[in-house]
Amino acid sequence: MNVREILENITKEHASDIFVVAGRPLTYKVNGKMHTYQEERMKPDMCHDFVTAIYELAGHRDISQFETTGDDDFSFAIVGVSRFRVSTYKQRGSYSAVIRIITFTLPQPSELMIPDAVMELANTNKGMVLVTGPAGGGKSTTLACLIDKINTEQEAHIITLEDPLEYLHTHKKSIVSQREICTDTENYLTALRASLRQSPDVILLGEMRDYETINTAMTAAETGHLIFSTLHTIGAANTIDRIIDAFPAAQQHQVAVQLSMVLHAVVSQRLLPTTDGKMVPAFEIMVLTPAIRNIIREGKTHQIDGMIYTSTNENMLAMDTSIFRLYQKGIIDKKTALANASNPEMMSKKIGAI
Questions:
Q1: Of 173, 244, 253, 300, which is most buried by a Cβ count within 10 Å?
Q2: Where do transmembrane segments lie in this chain (predicted)?
Q3: 123-134 residue pLDDT tens
Q4: What predicted TM-score, i.e. pTM, was given to this entire model?
Q5: pLDDT, tens digit, for every residue of 203-242?
Q6: What residues make up the domain containing 75?
Q7: Angle at 37 between CA 34 and CA 43, to 5 degrees
């Protein structure tokens, strides 16, 4: 089994993920649909050989941690083919892996249909910008496009803290320091605290996993740095509630006040299937206004969705408005629009009125 050749062939099919699991053929996903690479089912010994070969391709990475704990995450590149983000795990006692394929070159934001209002967030000089959404929703790609825009247009020191590294950035106008958790540094919190002593202008924090990391990130944003990060939440209101709820009850009011001052924008996104079998992102964009800051301070986050929906500000976009525009352009069908709308009844009326 030539694993390098298999990875090369599947990459040419424009796949997003590869699944190595015993009991079914080697499987890959293209535009959200599963395809099999071969008809033969993968046996446990074949999975063992495949996963071991991946570790060899990843610069002879030490496999002992995976063998001991049953889990490992890392990334590697094959020159002239692609970068790969790998999550290895054991299931039913056999070796398994999910491999995300990451292109070497970032597509243009316009090709990915990322709105200008999102890309303009790269011109923010301080505060916190959060990109949220479900796993596999394109958050990493959107953030990579924002970092690339800063790197191309501004003289800055950008520090990225990722687990693992995905897109690799070359130094353009900016200096880009990319640190991988567990490889270059111990954990997110240690790396974030250290980064504040490294004269950063922009910090990309791959994930905010606990209240200590969130607290340090908010302090960094408060002291004049631009912080980009992600959360697995859907919608601006849910994102704000998640951050505040991560803290002990006694601190929550104080955190809400602090968050209302440092938060600059929340972008939520999800990928939807298009009529031609591809995937397209739909966005909710909330840029904080004095009224929204006041709502966060007062703990009335349930009012945020309504404010975004009725806003005339061109930097504000409700998820349902984004979905409806995709339907109007014929990019998605009615079924997809209704299935993903937060208010299907209203969406149905708008579609019926066309």
A1: 244
A2: none
A3: 999 999 999 999
A4: 0.87
A5: 999 989 899 999 999 999 999 999 999 999 999 999 999 9
A6: 3-102
A7: 100
